[in-house]
Amino acid sequence: MPLETAVAEAVLGGVDWVQLRERDLGGRALCELAARVVAAARDAAQRRGGAVRVLINRRIDVALAVGADGAHLGFDALPVALARSLLGPERLVGVAAHTPGEVRAAAANGANYAHLAPIFAPLSKPQQRAPLGVAAIEQCGAALPLLAQGGVEPTNAAALIRAGAAGVAVTGALLGAADPRAAAQALRAALDGAMR
């Protein structure tokens, strides 16, 4: 199924943030895909009666060109302050982190949120780093909203929220599913149950 279709199905199932991460695409191809993903995600959110935020991984120019809600910065991306100056105060700037110290640094540098990964062994790619475990979330404190990433499934999502995560970031649990909408519904139910 095309990526924008899978994204729309996941949003219909309850996903409220989408991050487009396509490192192998050049500028034009990425911009065209991003425009389709943004449109599909927003249309699905409207049909669901909710909202969605769409972020573009690393490419601030593409985020601006397609009217995305912000950019997610990796380790080889622009510094947070420069990204903020380009995106403006209304758009989100997120940061990838692999340690609680990096999460605190992201907060000090003005990021809106951080992804901490990998909490568990990833479902969508080979493991490159040792899993941090749930305790790493607790060690971050409340520096900024934290999204737990890596091996997240409905069976372990509630524990991440209880440990202090504001939410989760997933790839394999949704895009690897035969039915992304049903997979998103199961994950959303687990998260909502933990937030009560």
What this model shows, in words?
- The protein has 196 residues and is α/β, with parallel strands linked by helices.
- The protein has a domain at 60-195: TIM Barrel (Alpha-Beta Barrel), CATH 3.20.20.
- Helix content is 46%, strand content 15%.
- The chain contains 9 helices and 7 strands.
- It has a 7-stranded parallel sheet.
- Helix 1 runs parallel beside helix 2 (27-48), helix 1 packs parallel to helix 9 and helix 2 packs across helix 3 (60-66).
- The longest helix is centred in the N-terminal third of the chain and has 22 residues, at 27-48.
- It is globular, with a radius of gyration of 16 Å.
- The termini are far apart.
- The mean pLDDT is 93.
Compose a concise summary of this entry.
The chain is built from 9 helices and 7 strands; from the N terminus they run αβαβαβαβαβαβαβαα. It has helices spanning 3-12, 27-48, 60-66, 80-87, 100-108, 135-140, 154-162, 172-175, 180-195, and strands at 17-20, 53-57, 70-73, 92-97, 113-116, 146-149, 167-169.
Map the helices and strands:
Blueprint: H1 3-12, E1 17-20, H2 27-48, E2 53-57, H3 60-66, E3 70-73, H4 80-87, E4 92-97, H5 100-108, E5 113-116, H6 135-140, E6 146-149, H7 154-162, E7 167-169, H8 172-175, H9 180-195
Parallel strand pairs: 1-2, 2-3, 3-4, 4-5, 5-6, 6-7
Helix pairs in contact: 1-2, 1-9, 2-3, 7-9
Largest sheet: 7 strands, parallel
CATH level 3 topology of the domain at 60-195: TIM Barrel
Rg, Cα atoms, Å: 16 Å
Individual helix count:
9
Structural class designation: alpha/beta
Strand order of the largest sheet: 1-2-3-4-5-6-7
Spell out the CATH superfamily of the domain at 60-195: Aldolase class I
Beta-strand segment tally: 7
Low confidence ranges: none
